[in-house]
Automatic annotation (TrEMBL):
This is Uncharacterized protein LOC108680198. The gene is LOC108680198. Residues 2-70 form the CUB domain. SUPFAM superfamilies: Spermadhesin, CUB domain (SSF49854). It comes from the Eukaryota. Keywords: Disulfide bond.
Length: 86
């Protein structure tokens, strides 16, 4: 499991583009990514869960973004993303 806590200067937001995501299977309990737009813990309504294969654009409401990638399967899960401050 990998976790990133991304912070921007006060008054700015974060835009993350997931350019390649593949959980290796479609079991969201084995491999997934979590994005929390509010920079909080992952157990609230500001959390988005990604599994399967996807590309996605994430924009925060404030200056914080928390991301977790969990790839616990042997079939080659991958996660590639870029971000910028806006």
């Amino acid at each position: 499991m990998c976790e990133w806590w991304i912070r921007a200067p006060v008054g700015k937001r974060i835009e993350m583009t997931v350019t390649d995501f593949n959980s290796g299977n479609y079991d969201c309990n084995q491999a997934y990514a979590l994005f929390n737009y509010a920079g909080n813990n992952f157990h609230n309504s500001a959390t988005y869960r990604l599994c399967g294969t996807s590309r996605v654009l994430v924009r925060t409401a404030a200056e914080q973004l928390n991301v977790i990638f969990n790839g616990r399967v042997a079939t080659g899960p991958r996660f590639t993303a870029t971000y910028r401050v806006i």
